[in-house]
Amino acid sequence: MRMSQMMLRTQRQAPEEAELPSHRLIVRAGLARRLAAGIYSLTPLAYRAIRRIEAIVREEMECIGGQELLLPVVQPAELWRESGRYDAIGSELARFDDAGGRAMVLAMTHEESVTDLARSVITSYRQLPQLVFQLQTKFRDEPRPRGGLVRLREFLMKDGYSFHASQADLDATYEQIVAAYNAIFRRVGLPILMVGADVGIMGGYESHEFMLLAEGGEDTLLVCPNCGYAANQEVAVAAREPAAQGKAAPLRRLHTPGATTIAALCEAASCTADQTLKAVFYTTGERLALALIRGDRAVNDIKLRNLLGVKAVRTLAPEESAAYGLVAGYAGPVGLTLDAPMTLVADESVVGATNLVAGANEPDYHLAGVSYGRDFNADLTGDIATVTAGMRCATCDGTLETRRGIEAANIFKLGWKYSETMRATFRDEQGETQPLVMGCYGLGITRMLACVLEEHHDDAGIIWPSSIAPYAFSLLAAGNDATAREAAEALYTALGAEFTLYDDRDLSAGVKLTDADLLGMPVRITVSARSLAAGGAELRVRRSGETRIVPLADVPEVARALSAE
Length: 565
Description:
Blueprint: H1 21-28, E1 32-36, E2 39-42, H2 44-63, E3 67-68, E4 74-76, H3 77-83, H4 85-88, E5 94-97, E6 103-106, H5 111-121, E7 130-139, E8 154-164, H6 167-188, E9 192-196, E10 206-213, E11 219-223, E12 230-232, E13 252-255, H7 262-269, E14 277-283, E15 288-294, H8 301-308, E16 314-315, H9 318-323, E17 342-347, E18 356-362, E19 365-370, E20 380-382, E21 401-415, H10 417-421, E22 425-427, E23 433-435, E24 437-444, H11 445-455, E25 457-458, E26 461-462, E27 473-477, H12 482-495, E28 500-503, H13 509-519, E29 523-527, H14 529-534, E30 537-541, E31 547-550, H15 555-563
Parallel strand pairs: 3-7, 15-17, 17-20, 27-28, 27-29
Antiparallel strand pairs: 1-2, 4-6, 5-6, 7-8, 8-24, 9-10, 10-21, 11-12, 11-21, 13-19, 14-15, 14-16, 18-19, 21-24, 22-23, 25-26, 29-30, 30-31
Helix pairs in contact: 1-11, 2-6, 2-11
């Protein structure tokens, strides 16, 4: 491809709002242009890389028996009401009425439509298992798009779905997907860490994310360098510490003016944070929840939501707390009465604990000697704590560390969530009707492109892995020497236009060389009067910086070998 004819414009500077390296490179290399918040136009150069990523994904999915199909982006709202997600999902789901007044949605995922397809096709266990996938556009009205192609509103995605007669069969396919994903990431040059994750709006009972470790990642991960345990902070667990126990002392009122934080309370009551009881009020939209946790820990909203079995939780705003008669900074479980339905939830760090310092439900006062079982009990107990670095690993007792990551893929064991609500069934070997067991497997295509740039770059620009590079070679003639230009033209023909990005623009050698490094094709081939005098063309490997002079006749063979390394 001749750069003089290509729809491409590079930039020396990236916009100030570009925080991630991949975002800066996307803009500077002209790979994409912002059309609206979270919506980008991909230029031909970027789309060549996208197509190569898609080809790898197709190959690996088909290797494990995946069948490619195509499902509609525009779907009737009735399907989403049938699954229960139409009302469960907020403004991220784009809703509209068609010309006939029928309620429609733009799909952010395709569980509903693929389940509808399956229930119209699958009738018997003899047709199972089934694994299908698609490469499709998605739209999620993300309120805070960021990071260029990392968090978009409109994006390309590979999503796959499997249907099974048993949970054991789903488990087997799940492991096949893990192997296929690892192969995909290995082929595109991404070192990926698989971590446990929350099922979120997808539902089901188990999920894993495939994360690229990156300083600018939006997810916090907890990892154990000793045993390899890894999980998103949303669901990470740590070794359980026994609750502080001892003979329960009598309750005592403490005058603690201004002690509305744990730090201030520790100073006022001469205690440590792990001897205090933190009380946080939430609303589920239907009732209140009081979350109780040891004062040196924080409540994990997602764990709390999952334990309560609700769609969402939200901490009460100060004015809401006041309306319920709650005393901000002094709330506690002892003697608490409200004219509203409430669920009291205790973290496992609190269950059985004695002699804690807790709010007295009146301004400027706390209670000392508060003990679980004697002074209060919980309606629900479990792990609702946010795991942080320094906590002990639940698997091997090592010390957990934090990492930042960018999610590249996410897989789920959906189980019967959609098949039961949408009545997608089959007849088993005994002729009994059973709901299909389902799995779901997502992989971001545009996001993977961003991840590749995040991982493979230097100060000069992109360093494309050869497996997905838009072109194998950057070819340029440096200077105004006519012989060099003629040699470059001949090499362009010999190398092949489909493999070569030929900078034939009438620009200085410095600009061409700078753009070649910015665009980052695996091998740069420079022809100049100096290189010809030295014996041929200069070949430079973008990744290693290795440079050599190669006779013109040998350039195609040597360049192909170098680009494949």
